[in-house]
Amino acid sequence: MMLGRCSWFSPLCFLLLPPFLNQSSHAESIASYPEGWESWPVVKESQTLPADTVLPPDASLFTQEAVEAYSWINDGQGSPLTIRVNPEKLEAYKKHGPYSDGPTAVAVSEIPGFIWVTEHLAGMPVYGSYNRKGEDISGIHPTLDPDFCDKCHTTYQEICRNGTCTNLVLETYASP
Ligand code: HEC
Q1: Which of 77, 84, 110, 143 yields a CA-CA distance of 20 to 30 A from 51?
Q2: Of 10-14, 22-26, 56-60, 78-82, where does the model show the most confidence?
Q3: So what's the pLDDT on residue 82?
Q4: Ligand 1 pocket test: which of 152, 158, 162 has the largest number of ligand atoms within 8 Å of its C-beta?
Q5: Separation of 57 CA from ligand 1 center, angstroms?
Q6: Distance 67 CA to ligand 1 centre (A)
Q7: How far is CA 15 from CA 5, 52, 66, 84, 128, in A?
Q8: Pocket residue to mutate for ligand 1, from 118, 121, 144, 151, most atoms within 8 A of Cβ
Q9: How confident is the model at residue 50, as a pLDDT?
Q10: Which residues pair with 46 in a beta bridge?
């Protein structure tokens, strides 16, 4: 499993550990389920990568950790990921904010159908995870806990600004 492949000098491994040691805590989404996200414009088609992905030797630590965190999705086979942005926030999104309040963007893991939500409240990003029925699924896996989302989206400030991360690592190796 993923901890076995963690290297101890890696900052994200420390981020990965607490949720695993604390599995009994009950996670709840903070961002609410944004009705109508299905019709938001698609800004990127990406993917969560299969567990056996061989990354290029120069892949950043961030890339490696992002792949490891979600390699459990779809039994390790990866999934298409569709990123959609609230049409009212498209201009802000292109510049990574600043964002007005309300739902900002979703990343949809098409298999098995996870809706990852980023919303802004008082200018700060908050996160949530839902299934296609709008049911909160943030308690089903440690990596779906909003605290876990927040740590990655906040720690890598050179990649994620104001809580949004797109246009980065994944596209450098996503195509076959
Ligand atoms: C290991 C780091 C990491 C974690 C943990 C993480 N994300 Fe992300 N997130 C990313 C990256 C990288 C992208 C950009 C993906 C791309 O460009 O293909 C992204 C993109 C997104 C997007 C699309 C909008 C954007 O540009 O940021 C949303 C929405 C999102 N994440 C929500 C979440 C939620 C909700 C969680 C927790 C359930 C979460 N993320 C956990 C790294 C992470």
Answers
A1: 84
A2: 78-82
A3: 93
A4: 152
A5: 23
A6: 11
A7: 14, 22, 12, 27, 18
A8: 118
A9: 81
A10: 81
Select the more confidently predicted residue: 126 or 67. 126
Residue nearest to atom 23 of ligand 1 (CA): 107
**Domain extents in the chain:** 27-173
Of 117, 102, 127, 95, nearest to 27 by C-alpha is 127
Q: Whose CA is nearest to atom 14 of ligand 1?
A: 166
Ligand 1 mean position, distance from CA 99 (Å): 16
Question: What confidence tier does 134 reach under pLDDT thresholds 50, 70, 90?
Answer: very high
Torsion sign over Cα 49, 54, 59, 62: positive
Atom of ligand 1 nearest to the CA of 169: 12
Q: Where are the beta strands (DSSP E) in the chain?
A: 42-48, 79-85, 102-109, 114-121, 124-131
* φ, ψ for residue 106, nearest 5 deg: -130, 150
